[in-house]
Every structure is written in structure tokens, then in C-alpha cells.
Amino acid sequence: MDESKKHMLALIAIVLLSIVFRFYKLGTVPVWDFDEGYNMRYAYDLLQGQILWFAIKYTFIPHPPLFFMAYAPIIHYFGAGVYNLRALTAFYGVLTTIVIYITGRRMFNPPIGLIGAFIYAATPEVVFWNRIGFANNQFILLSALSLYFIHTYSKTGKEIHLIAGSLSIGLSVITEYTGLFNLAAAAVYLHRYHPGKAARMAAVSLLPTAILFAFMLCHSPGYFLFDAAYQLHRFFSPLKITAGLIALIAAYKLKDIANSFYSPIARSINEDIMIFVVVISLTSFYATEDAFWHATTFLFTMSFFGLCVRPLFLMDEGRERALLMLFLAGSVLSMLALDRADHMTMVIYPHASIALASLLYSTYGKTKTEGSFIIRKLKLKPSNNALLAACFYPLAVSACLTTYLFIIGGIPGQQVEQVRQITDYINGQTNDGDLVLTYSWMFPLITNARVGLITQSIAYDGIPIAYYSGDFPKDRFSFNTSYARAKFIVGANGTSEWITNQTGERRIADYIEGYNKTYVAGFLVYRNTAYNSQN
Fold first, then answer.
1. Spatial CA neighbour of 398 closest among 406, 226, 72
2. What is the DSSP string of 275-344?
3. Is the C-alpha dihedral spanning 469, 473, 476, 482 positive or negative?
4. Digit-coded pLDDT (tens) for 381-432
5. For 303-330, how does the pLDDT look when each residue is reduced to its tens digit (9 = 90+)?
6. 3-state secondary structure of 244
7. Count of CB atoms within 10 A of residue 213's CB?
8. Cα–chain-centroid distance for residue 24?
């Protein structure tokens, strides 16, 4: 069998593995995330011709609309549901696996494409976030496509590839505004290697965002400008901007020191396979159940990123290295700008997978031809298969851990029967117009009442919290969401801690302490005893 057929069979096996890891028990593992309910509701309201964020009139700040627009047709044909939402994002994960293969093959060679695709397909943290209905999954697919098309344009000079790359970046921006970091990375690269093309790329990339902003300025100018100013202040305060500028200037000035620091580390890993095995294994063993269940930490993210930066210093100076460096740097800067270490870490996965693949491949190749320090000292003559196993066993560890977490059942799943019991109970106790404050993903299941959110009930009463400024005019709300008006408030695990955790406000828990409490299928239900006397 020739090499091309072997590579194709390997790719098919990796894609099948990616499908199994992402779709098996997809509807229940892991438990349903609060943001999934938000995303379902955004898309559901768009189908109704409304731009709402549950009860609040929305302006697509801070979340632009492309992901909700992509999910809306699924709701139209199949209804709103967590499985339907996750099926879309899991599908994006499989497509991203294929794009990583194509990109790694084009930038380097087919083996690096296959290794990169396997890393993305089988790494537990990647699989975890691909199985949740977040817009970030659409974003990283578009980000991977952006890298592919910009590199392809650089190799071929064909304008169609520059346009495709620009559109991919533009669509990533109206999926997540962090796509602006992709735009910056591509602009710097094009300015360096293709003078005069950066401005054209930026113009095409910003066109979808310009259309969106123009629409919102016509539709809700006051709300749009208010929300934009508030979110810019949250994420880009003068202190953060100043610190960021200082960090960038320092990084530029200290780049020679950084090179002298990283390069010996990278060369030492490449020189001695045993050192490499120890270091690379840390990446696999960080991936415990707790790491995924309680959200990713910056320690894991930065360790993984740091490991993936090092192979870039082993590469020959050239455009591939520069392009990967820029996209990786943009991804990390976006995480730092948002000060988030949860699913926002997803932005590094496509580029880091290719970078890590290049490290594995170069280490195997050089060790095979030159040996390593320990191999030479011990005068060993290991077989090619032994070297292959030594270089790539961390990938097998990663795949085994993913199998344990998602196939065998290492991560707890959603207890759907309990959800049905509580929603049936609420439906039997409510009528049209009643307000129930509960988890966002319950909205399609509670049919006899309006579903509101604890966070929005806080904002309605004029208290700032997270995305909500606290000084929204009352006409921003499509209905009164105040917790004092809710007929039922539903929490989980039989405790009231979730209320304080969701809002940071103890006053709600104190206010409803006198309500009647009922336990249904593990949920704690507060009933407002004065509800019937309210208007």
C-alpha cells in the first residue's frame, strides 16, 4: 500500500475517533451548562423575529449573532434542545479536526497534519469543550480556516485564497469579537511578507462587523451605544490597556532574552528523548476529571501553551513559524484581555495542535537519525518502533483518558429524568404569565410560564452584575423579571447556595427565606406565598 493510501486510512480513523469522542452520550455528558440555555434562547427568539436576551432587548454586545443564526434553522426543524445544540458544536469539532489535518499537511507535511488532527481529536480538554454548545466551537473552526487560507495565499499568491481567509476572519469576528485578534495576527503577517495586502484583508474582514453595527445603530442606537460603552469599560479599562501596552513593549524589547531562554529548553528537549517524554507527559497528566469538571485553570493553559511555543523555536526561520507564532500570540492575548480561563482557552487549540505535532515529528525524526544523549551513552540501538512508541505514547495516554472520561463514564452526566420531574411539577403549578426563575436551559421544558433568570432579576432591580450594568431603563425588559414577582424560584442540590453563587448577592436568598420550600427530584423549589395577591 502506498503512502498516500496509508495517510488517507489514518485520516479516516482519526475522523471516526473524533466523531465517537464527540457524539457518544452527547445529550447528557457532561451536565448541561448555563450558557447553553442562553444560546438556545438567543436563537429561538431570532426565529420569532425578536432580538432578546431572555427578557432583555439585546444589541449583540457582547455576543455577536452568527452562531445563533447558524443554530436557528436546527430549532426550526428539530426544536430547541441541548442535544440539538451540542450536535452542531460537536460537528464543528469534527470539521476542525479535518481542517487541522489539511493545514498541517500544507504547512509542513502529511505526518504533521495527521498528528495535529489526532491531538485535536483526542485531547480530553478539547473534547470536553467541543461537547458543550458554546459559540467558541464555531469560532475555532473559522480560526483554523483563517490560518489555512492565509497560509495558502502566502504560498500560491492567488487572490481567491486571500478573500477566503479574510471572510473566515470576518465571520469569526461576528461569532466572537475575539476574532479581532485573528485579524491583527493576519495583518501583521501580511504587512511583513505581502506589503499592501493587509489593508485589503482588513477591509474585507471588517465588512460583516460593519454591517452588523450599522444595523444595530439603525435598530436600537441608544441601547447599542450604551452596551458598547459598558462592555468596553469592563474588558478594556484604562488600567488594562496601559498594562497591555507595557507588556507588549517589554516583550518586543526583551525578545532576544526570550529567544535565549526558550531556545536552549527547546533544543534540550529535542536532544534527549527522555527529557522530552517527561515534559510532554505533564500535558497529558494535567488532564484529570477535576480539571474539566471545575473548569480549566490558567496553569494548565499556560503550561500547554508554553510547551507548544517551544517547537516554534526549533523550526527554521520562515513564514510558517511566523504565522503560527502570530496566531498563537493573538489567541493568548485574547484570553488575557478577557481575563478568562474557562472555555475561552479553546482559541489556542487549533494552532497549538499543529505546533505540538511539529515538535513530536521533529523529535522523532532527529532522534531516529542522530540518537539522543542517553541512547548514545548507553550504546543502545532501539528499533524504529521503540522510538515511535517513546515519542508518541503521550498521545495514547491522552486518548485513553478521553475514553475513560467520555465513553466509560468518568465525567458525571445530566440526570434527565430529574429534570423532567421538576419541569413537569412546575408546569402543573403555573399558568401563562407566571414567572419562574431557574436555569436557562429549562426554558423549552417549562411551557406554562415565563422563564426568567436570577441574574436578570437582579439587574431589573437596579443592581449591576456581570454583563448587566444595573441601570437599564425598564423598557429594556420585555417583562418584569424581579425576583419579588416570581411565583417559583428553582435551584439545584437542595440548597440555596446556587442563588448567591449565581448573583454574588445574598439579599435574594435572605428575601425568599420565608417562602414555602419543596424538594422535587433533587431541586429546591421556593414558592412565593404572596404571589396571588400581586398584580
1. 406
2. HHHHHHHHHHHH--HHHHHT---HHHHHHHHHHHHHHHHHSPSSHHHHHHHHHHHHHHHHHHHHT--SGG
3. positive
4. 666 677 677 667 778 877 887 888 899 988 889 999 999 999 999 999 999 8
5. 454 445 555 555 666 888 889 888 988 8
6. helix
7. 18
8. 20
